[in-house]
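User: Predict NB-ARC domain-containing protein's structure from this.
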Amino acid sequence: MTLDRVPLEVAKHPVGLDSAKNSLIQKLNLNSVNDVLKIGIWGIGGIGKTTAVKAVYNQIYGDFEAASFVINVRDTVAETTGLTKLQKKVLKDTSKYGDEVDSVDEGIFLFRERLRRKRVLLILDDVDAAIQLKALVGDWLAPGSRVIITSRDKHILNVAGISSECIHDMIGLDINESLHLFS
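Assistant:
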């Protein structure tokens, strides 16, 4: 079964994006299919974490059996049924099923049942709590899967089990890039 996937809108003026995108793709080590790899991106709000991971997603999502980009995890979880809503989205994106998730535990069970044999690209944008990671990333990932997590809090990336060499510190534009964007 092939799932319909469309590229994400990245940025109207993507100044300075290529270096961040290329660095992240290199960290993903896409040639290795024997392991599950998680990478993290952290930095202040508005610095370009989401834009960078959208560009990465657009370049590599076709290399995976299934892919899901979950934007604004922090804001969505603030809703009463936020975690189950996010689980439904991941299941719908990766397996065309998701409507039957009524609890976080049920969502985790369905991840294991439906996705444990699929090579998945999962991007979680703006994670700010360990419970979000528990509900959305677990032992259900098949070898060759890749997870990218963005956060404003580097500690969350450590909680996710991401090694320091797999954490990308997002920095602002240099002076020339800033002038280019401004003009």
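The chain has one domain: 17-182.
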